[in-house]
Amino acid sequence: MEKKLKVGVLGATGMVGQRFISLLENHPWYEVVTVAASPRSAGKTYEEAVGDRWKMTTPMPEAVKKLAVMNVNEVEAVAASVDFVFSAVDMTKDEIKAIEEAYAKTETPVVSNNSAHRWTPDVPMVVPEINPEHFEVIPFQKKRLGTKRGFIAVKPNCSIQSYAPALTAWKEFEPYEVVAATYQAISGAGKTFKDWPEMEGNIIPYIGGEEEKSEQEPLRLWGKVEDGVIVKAQSPVITCQCIRVPVLNGHTAAAFVKFKKKVTKEELIRKLREYKGEPQELNLPSAPGQFIRYLEEDNRPQVTADVDFEHGMGISIGRLREDTVYDYKFVGLSHNTVRGAAGGAVLCAELLTAKGYIQAK
Ligand SMILES: NC(=O)c1ccc[n+]([C@@H]2O[C@H](COP(=O)([O-])OP(=O)(O)OC[C@H]3O[C@@H](n4cnc5c(N)ncnc54)[C@H](OP(=O)(O)O)[C@@H]3O)[C@@H](O)[C@H]2O)c1
Questions:
Q1: Nearest-CA neighbor of 185 among 340, 342, 23?
Q2: Which residues contact 74 (CB under 8 A, 6 or more apart)?
Q3: What is the rounded CA–CA span in Å between residue 147 and residue 168?
Q4: According to CATH, what is the number of the domain 5-157+342-354?
Q5: Which of 128, 161, 204, 280 could make a disulfide contact with 276, Cβ separation 3.0–4.6 Å?
């Protein structure tokens, strides 16, 4: 790319926003020129606004420290400074829906980490290795919004990324019933142990809204584009329990699957290892070389050893074995704030750029 695209991060001071800032440091295609957050932070430098809330293990990039934080709600001013934005604001669902549409209507593409638009029929919700063809609804969305280049694209919830990729790799064997229990990290709630000490040594058997997302969102990923909207798949049925565990980063899932077609363990493992998508074919900057790996050891994947596989963009699967009630069971692990949040959104933006949907204004 001759000249880097100018990027804004909405919600830049938060946990996911900070992850965007870290991942975009030295990005070959994108340069963060604008950071925006609530009116509380507006006017301060990014360094002042974040204060002691910096939650990344790497230092705050020098290039953003002195940027003046803008107010997310001043849409025209923020939009005028950038080619496109990443969205990670924490507002009500209706507010997020409205503000993301407002940005799109200023002809600014929005790549969002938020759930607000995940079920808007003409908004693509994409894992680039799984359903890049869903970007085909963008022209229909632009027509609805009355825009030439502005649109919204989103990525799915972090919880599904530990098991949905494996089920996708096994699609030809027709999984039709899935049970999953997820063991989810505290960073998924925007927290560290410093701001959530009650989580040390604790388990909380409830994460608001998470089970519904974990059961339904994979079906939208596997849906079809019909008449300019996404029609969700009907199978497999998925039931899920989502549990908060004392882990900083990394969502683990224990899943059980029934298949319509007979398949051996060796074949399932081969399909995982061979699975790849457009990010690998196009060699996108944030694409993991290997999307899914299979670990043979009985005690893997483990959060501490495996969460950073492929810089947090790869999925680790292990413990695949026959089950007495279901056909097979396995354990999956993904990085919830990298692949499951900011990294997944950056990869979506890269694919949108490679396909010409995002360009310099
Ligand atoms: N953490 C994860 O792993 C994860 C994964 C998937 C999805 N999400 C979703 O991503 C979003 C951000 O999550 P997070 O964990 O990063 O939250 P967070 O740490 O609480 O950060 C929220 C961000 O939104 C801004 N904000 C809050 N209220 C605002 C308002 N009224 N107007 C404008 N900006 C406002 C904050 O700015 P100030 O600093 O100025 O208050 C901050 O930049 C949430 O919708 C969350 O559900 C999070």
A1: 340
A2: 42
A3: 33
A4: 3.40.50.720
A5: 280
Atom of ligand 1 nearest to the CA of 72: 33
Q: Quick check: is 158 catalytic?
A: yes
Instruction: Report CA(10)–ligand 1 centroid distance (Å).
Output: 9
Which pTM does this prediction carry?
A: 0.97
We find that the CATH architecture of domain 159-335 is 2-Layer Sandwich (3.30)
Q: Tell me if residue 251 is catalytic.
A: yes
What mean pLDDT do residues 68-97 have?
98
CA distance readout (Å), 67 to 12, 41, 178, 209, 259? 11, 12, 47, 35, 53
C-alpha 346 – ligand 1 centre gap (Å): 17
Ligand 1 atom at minimum distance from 71 CA: 33
Of 76, 69, 80, nearest to 10 (Cα)? 69
C-beta 91 within 6 A of ligand 1: yes
205 - beta bridge partners? none
Preceding amide of 197 cis, omega within 30: no
Is any ligand 1 atom within 6 A of the Cβ of residue 354?
no
- Torsion, Cα 73 134 213 353, to 10 degrees, reads -50
pLDDT tens for each residue of 159-194: 999 999 999 999 999 999 999 999 999 999 999 999
Name the residue type at position 146: G
Query: What are the angstrom distances between the C-alpha of 15 and each of 69, 79, 338?
Result: 16, 22, 11
